[in-house]
Design goal:
Structural class: mainly alpha
Helix content: over 70%
Number of domains: 1
Distance between the termini: 61 Å
Largest sheet: none
Strand content: under 5%
Length: about 70
């Protein structure tokens, strides 16, 4: 029975990512959960990853617009 409940939880998380993100944000803001450091670390890594992708996209665009050499 436990696996069935876990599967339903995963399906709900995939179907409603905004609700899941808000719930995780609320859990991390409380600071009482054992998962708080992991939630915060993943959030920081996602922000840094997005910034890195944007920086690389701008750098590659400028590189190829200037002849690529």
């Amino acid at each position: 029975m436990f696996l069935e409940e876990k599967a339903k939880s995963i399906v709900h998380s995939v179907e409603h990512p905004v609700e899941t993100a808000k719930a995780l944000e609320h859990e991390a803001a409380g600071g009482y959960s054992a998962r708080t450091p992991a939630i915060a670390l993943v959030g920081v890594m996602l922000v840094i990853g997005v910034l890195l992708v944007l920086l690389l996209a701008v750098a590659m665009t400028l590189y190829f617009l200037n002849g690529g050499s």
